[in-house]
């Protein structure tokens, strides 16, 4: 049976090229919808950093940095918060015309947890871990839909990377239809390292990609983490090599792929069914 590419995302070629040029700042569509996820101006950003609240990234106007911008950027880097240089026009659009003074922070909609916290949730429930690993999903609507699928299937948590991916913005929250409030989300510096740590903790890791085993014939009645790849690119080669298995969804129609959230729903439903069928 031929296994074709599983899914592709929403962004078009021009959008992906723009993201590479500016180290993947928030996209124009997301910028107009982020709303209260944006903390605007130097004083507001300073207080946000002092509060200890989770911050997805710092957007800083391209060019020489001076004055209060320097210590703010330094503190963000020290805390491991991604700092993204972007054009003034993008900051203007995101701030809605309010004075941004060359800096805007994108605050997370909820606090992130650790991978260990996710494993602890499964242990507290007396269940085999069921975890989703998002390897660079950049579209906030896709990420929100994946969160909704994961929570609906009883998953214990989601793992996302710090860079080159969507964080927990208000758009993601809205797209999740409230599921974000019930699912633990860990943000890690490196997905490949997170996969290695999951394996050390006894979790079997499955990459959702073309050319793998039929998911219906794959044993997932165990501690499971399913890696869903980025839009257009899929699971990165490095992460794929570190996974225990590659699983695929057979395609029978004219199209050769599913949207990432659709693929996640199919695989998570199967894993949840296998984990629970003998209870």
Structural description of this entry:
With about 280 residues, the chain is an alpha/beta fold. About 40% of the residues lie in helices and about 20% in strands. It is built from eleven helices and ten strands. Strands 7-6-5-9-8-10 form a six-stranded parallel sheet, sandwiched between helices. The protein has a four-stranded mixed sheet with strand order 1-4-2-3. β6, α8 and β7 form a beta-alpha-beta unit. The longest helix is centred in the C-terminal third of the chain and has 17 residues. It is elongated and about 60 Å long. The N terminus is likely disordered.
Walk me through the topology:
Elements: H1 13-21, H2 28-33, E1 38-40, H3 42-51, E2 55-61, H4 69-78, E3 83-86, H5 88-95, E4 103-107, H6 115-125, E5 130-135, H7 140-152, E6 157-161, H8 170-175, E7 184-188, H9 191-200, E8 204-214, E9 224-229, H10 237-242, E10 245-248, H11 260-276
Helix pairs in contact: 3-4, 7-11
Short description:
The chain is α/β, with parallel strands linked by helices and 279 residues long. The protein is built from eleven helices and ten strands.
- List the uncertain runs: 1-36
Figure out the total of helices: 11
Give me the count of strands.
10
Q: Classify the secondary structure makeup into a structural class.
A: alpha/beta
Cα radius of gyration in angstroms:
19 Å
The main β sheet shows up as: 6 strands, parallel
In quaternary terms, these chains amount to: single chain
**Overall 3D shape:** elongated
The helix content is: 25-40%
Strand order of the largest sheet: 7-6-5-9-8-10
Distance between the termini: 32 Å
Strand content: 15-25%
Average pLDDT score: 85
Helix/strand order: HHEHEHEHEHEHEHEHEEHEH
């Amino acid at each position: 049976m031929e296994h074709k590419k599983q899914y592709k995302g929403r962004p078009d070629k021009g959008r992906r090229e723009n993201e590479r040029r500016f180290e993947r700042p928030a996209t124009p569509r997301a910028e107009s919808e982020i709303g209260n996820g944006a903390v605007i101006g130097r004083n507001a950003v300073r207080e946000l950093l002092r509060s200890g609240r989770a911050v997805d990234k710092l957007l800083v106007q391209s060019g020489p940095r001076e004055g209060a911008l320097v210590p703010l950027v330094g503190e963000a880097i020290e805390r491991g918060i991604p700092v993204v240089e972007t054009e003034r026009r993008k900051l203007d659009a995101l701030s809605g015309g309010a004075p941004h003074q060359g800096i805007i922070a994108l605050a997370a909609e909820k606090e992130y947890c650790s991978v260990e916290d996710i494993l602890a949730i499964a242990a507290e429930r007396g269940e085999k871990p069921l975890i989703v690993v998002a390897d660079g999903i950049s579209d906030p609507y896709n990420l929100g839909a994946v969160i909704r699928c994961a929570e609906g299937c009883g998953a214990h948590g989601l793992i996302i990377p710090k860079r080159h991916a969507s964080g927990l913005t208000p758009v993601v929250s809205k797209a999740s239809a409230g599921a974000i409030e019930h699912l633990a989300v860990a943000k890690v510096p490196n997905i490949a390292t997170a996969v290695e740590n999951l394996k050390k903790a006894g979790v079997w890791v499955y990459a959702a990609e073309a050319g793998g085993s039929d998911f219906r014939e794959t044993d997932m009645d165990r501690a499971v983490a399913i890696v869903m790849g980025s839009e257009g690119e899929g699971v990165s080669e490095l992460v794929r090599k570190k996974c225990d298995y590659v699983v695929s969804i057979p395609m029978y129609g004219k199209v050769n792929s599913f949207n990432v959230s659709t693929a996640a729903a199919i695989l998570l439903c199967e894993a949840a069914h296998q984990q629970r069928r003998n209870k």
